[in-house]
Write a structure and sequence with these properties.
Length: about 100
């Protein structure tokens, strides 16, 4: 609720009853401790990510080493298969056009 002050202006009722609303103050020590804990947590999180990434990369390397065909060779084979299929499809399409125009 608002109460009329001595000059006729509206003031919060708490101020008219003698209670003063102070400025917003933050204690710096708990704030610094909180910041330090957040920084420590970030460092621990980064360390955990580094360990996890290392483990996954080592496992991937072991898996690749166990494959009969290296991934680069497998990709090369699939690329040649795709090129051959594309050429066969284009040839069939062109031969189909040639036979349909002769009719």
């Amino acid at each position: 609720m608002l109460a009329a002050g001595p000059r006729g202006k509206s003031e919060p009722m708490a101020q008219s009853q003698g209670v003063q609303l102070g400025t917003f103050q933050v204690s710096s020590r708990p704030l610094a401790i909180g910041g330090a804990l957040m920084a420590a947590g970030a460092v621990i999180g980064l360390a955990g990510m580094a360990v996890s990434t290392t483990v996954v990369l080592i496992a991937a390397k072991r898996w690749i080493d166990q494959l009969e065909t290296p991934p680069s060779e497998l990709a090369r084979q699939k690329w040649h298969q795709a090129r051959a299929a594309t050429q066969a499809g284009a040839s069939a399409w062109q031969d189909g056009l040639a036979t349909s125009t002769r009719r």
